[in-house]
Amino acid sequence: MTVNFIGAGPGAADLVTVRAQRIIAASPVCLYAGSLVPQELLAECPEGARVIDTARLSLDEIVALLIEADAAGQDVARLHSGDPSIFSAVAEQVRRLEAAGVAYTVVPGVPAFTAAAASLGRELTVPGVSQSIVLTRVSTLSTAMPEGEDLRSLGRSGATMVVHLGAHRIDQIALELTENYGRDCPAAVVAFASRPDEIVLRGTLATIADQVKAAGVTKTAVVIVGKVLAAEGFPDSYLYSATRERTTH
């Protein structure tokens, strides 16, 4: 039997892969990450499935349920918001399953930052403006950032900066990024991306913190900073250039 770690996307129930839907519909056990996973997606579970909200469970309790299902010969759909490769807490579950000899797969999902970019109507890698994206977060009381991964250090590249899980520290983010990006650098915050209650805020590093606080945004938000958010007059990509040699097959 298999534990399937599934990226449940940023919030909209239809922003999941066909593979994810198929596995959910066939799994007699489903563990999901609380309010971060839409109820409409849980409706895909088969009749009689054991559906468990893990929001209040410890890591040991969650892993015990996964191992228990495997021992009973039951496939598991383990739903995480966004994509399992980014800030998902999948790594520690996988480590324990490997130690227990339990098979697993990982199904990618739509990460929150791409849903946020879609809501903003912006490409985050614009020719001649920025070809790199930094995905990061800020330090919290529970989990410190590794040495050298503070915003000031990461911001030296001038790349498009995407900060997850940091709306409650928007003042700190704006202050630390201003050093390398400047007060007038475009900034945006998208909360609950793709959901009916989505909030989209646009401004600069000088103004975005006040907008976030006025809107009451404290969590489930992505902060995006970079010139790409207001890019104009940039060169066209070579991908579709008329000067590019193309084959007929």
UniProtKB/TrEMBL annotation:
<dbReference type="GO" id="GO:0046026">
    <property type="term" value="F:precorrin-4 C11-methyltransferase activity"/>
</dbReference>
<keyword id="KW-0949">S-adenosyl-L-methionine</keyword>
<dbReference type="GO" id="GO:0009236">
    <property type="term" value="P:cobalamin biosynthetic process"/>
</dbReference>
<dbReference type="InterPro" id="IPR014776">
    <property type="entry name" value="4pyrrole_Mease_sub2"/>
</dbReference>
<keyword id="KW-0169">Cobalamin biosynthesis</keyword>
<comment type="similarity">
    <text>Belongs to the precorrin methyltransferase family.</text>
</comment>
<dbReference type="Pfam" id="PF00590">
    <property type="entry name" value="TP_methylase"/>
</dbReference>
<comment type="pathway">
    <text>Cofactor biosynthesis; adenosylcobalamin biosynthesis.</text>
</comment>
<keyword id="KW-0489">Methyltransferase</keyword>
<protein>
    <submittedName>
        <fullName>Precorrin-4 C(11)-methyltransferase</fullName>
        <ecNumber>2.1.1.133</ecNumber>
    </submittedName>
</protein>
<dbReference type="InterPro" id="IPR050161">
    <property type="entry name" value="Siro_Cobalamin_biosynth"/>
</dbReference>
<dbReference type="GO" id="GO:0032259">
    <property type="term" value="P:methylation"/>
</dbReference>
<dbReference type="InterPro" id="IPR006362">
    <property type="entry name" value="Cbl_synth_CobM/CibF"/>
</dbReference>
<keyword id="KW-0808">Transferase</keyword>
<dbReference type="InterPro" id="IPR003043">
    <property type="entry name" value="Uropor_MeTrfase_CS"/>
</dbReference>
<feature type="domain" description="Tetrapyrrole methylase">
    <location>
        <begin position="3"/>
        <end position="208"/>
    </location>
</feature>
<dbReference type="InterPro" id="IPR000878">
    <property type="entry name" value="4pyrrol_Mease"/>
</dbReference>
<dbReference type="InterPro" id="IPR014777">
    <property type="entry name" value="4pyrrole_Mease_sub1"/>
</dbReference>
<dbReference type="InterPro" id="IPR035996">
    <property type="entry name" value="4pyrrol_Methylase_sf"/>
</dbReference>
